UniProtKB/TrEMBL annotation:
Gene3D superfamilies: 2.40.30.160, Probable tRNA modification gtpase trme, domain 1
Organism: Bartonella bovis m02
UniProt-listed PANTHER family: TRANSFERASE CAF17, MITOCHONDRIAL-RELATED (PTHR22602:SF0)
GO molecular function annotations of the record: methyltransferase activity
Top-level taxon in the UniProt lineage: Bacteria
NCBIfam families reported in the protein's UniProt record: ygfZ_signature
Protein name in UniProt: Aminomethyltransferase
GO biological process, one term: methylation
One Pfam family it belongs to: Beta-barrel_CAF17_C
Keyword Transit peptide recorded: yes
UniProt entry keywords in alphabetical sequence: Methyltransferase, Transferase, Transit peptide
Domain CAF17 C-terminal: 206-276
Amino acid sequence: MIEKQNTIRLKNRKIIKVIGEEATRFLQALITIDVEKINSQELFPSALLSPQGKIIADFLIGKIDQGYMIDISAPLADSFQKRLILYKLHAKVKITQPLQEVTTISWQDEINTFDFSSSFIDKRFPQKEKMVRIYEKIPFLAPEHNDNWNRMRIRYAIAESGQDYEIGKVFPHDINYDQISGLSFNKGCYIGQEVVSRMYHRRAARRRLLIVKGQHNLKPGSTIEAGTKILGELGTCVENEALALMRIDHVKDAMNKHIPFTIENLPVTISIAENMNFSFPENIVETN
């Protein structure tokens, strides 16, 4: 039985299905993940990028019979589907948006995903959390709001568009996609791939999604400062914990100079999530 404190219903998600004999080849040339590695047990984070390498649609994708299922934020679903249809041309694929009103998420439970015919493990989170997304009825009515879900996202620095960043304004590296299985650097070309590859090989990612903690309740949109320099704004907040996009070189520079981090003149700390494999840079070059 799923425990209610670790389960939430998300009503702001929609499903898009891409099926057909050329579905793999079609998506492989468009999105950031290696489509050939997607399986029917896991959901991988992925994105559609602009030619400049910035995210114009973020989503989760898993394999289903004859194709793929995409779990995407409801406000992005229609425009994303239209883009896919535009790129379709003569490809032998069918792109549909079936009725899907609720996505259920459950974690830290002794639940076998095969107990449900339509469920996937969310690859963004460490395996120990057993993060499962379910696309069918569950044995009870799960709550629509659950701070524990946002706490989990904060702990592992998992961003949500609209809450933690604005579509069209960030590169995949900014929101740690290279750290959570959201990017492929080995497959062939896709839209925006050249920019993403350059950032990877030159280790040029300077903005990252970081964790902010204070001794007081934090509010989305609050400004993080180090002396007179503004480092960023808070995104998702739960009590005294939050996520924020910041330049890691600016954060490290303030650390080196022992300049305290503050929000509204109250002290906060800034850290990298435990599941991330990057660090604050050692050598700081003064930039604006």
